[in-house]
Amino acid sequence: MSLRVLTICTGNICRSPAAAALLGASFPGTLEISSAGIRAVEGADIDPQIRELLAGQELFPALHRAHTVTVSELSGADLILTMTAGQRGMVLELVPRALHRTFTLKEFARISADIVTDHTVAWAPRADEESRLTRMIECASRFRGRSSRQGSDDVDDPYLGTPKDYAQAFHEIREAIETIHAAVRS
């Protein structure tokens, strides 16, 4: 059974579908990835500027229809990655028991790197990426708040912003996912 990862942003047209596509490319065949919004633009496609940035990475997501996250989706996810701390809080208001598997994307990336450098978490010999990511999720809540790495855990919403805003958000998402992938592969 694949790990179920849910990415969440506000409208489900920019950040969360970008994160879902980039996660899928980083962990092909390993994860069952979906995205949703806190206040989704119901039925909308991926924002054209995000689609263009994904195409620049040779990623061409299938037809996307934005939707608002459901309690069922949250309850069924093994890992919930939001784009802001505020969204993480909203998720936890809906499903408080999801605390140990809900993080902002950048927070989980930072924690993933910390887990690897801490050396207190051991991987099973020859563990595959799914097993390592599962172990990382299990350990992540213990590392919450312990990082010496500074910076915001939020990826700002580029919607209706400048091309530079879109590029910045996309860069932050891609960098966080690359950090997670590198930690899992270490």
UniProtKB/TrEMBL annotation:
In this protein, which residues make up the domain named Phosphotyrosine protein phosphatase I? 3-183
- Asked whether the keyword Signal is assigned, the reply is yes
GO molecular function terms noted in the UniProt entry: protein tyrosine phosphatase activity
- Give the matching SUPFAM superfamilies: Phosphotyrosine protein phosphatases I
Signal sequence segment = 1-20
Name the UniProt key words of this record, in alphabetical order.
Signal
InterPro entries attached to this UniProt entry: LMW_PTPase (IPR050438), Ptyr_pPase (IPR023485), Ptyr_pPase_sf (IPR036196)
List all membrane-crossing ranges.
none
Q: Which PANTHER family match?
A: LOW MOLECULAR WEIGHT PROTEIN TYROSINE PHOSPHATASE, LOW MOLECULAR WEIGHT PROTEIN-TYROSINE-PHOSPHATASE ETP-RELATED
Q: What is this protein called?
A: Protein-tyrosine phosphatase
Biological source species: Propionibacterium cyclohexanicum
Q: What is the lineage of its organism?
A: Bacteria, Bacillati, Actinomycetota, Actinomycetes, Propionibacteriales
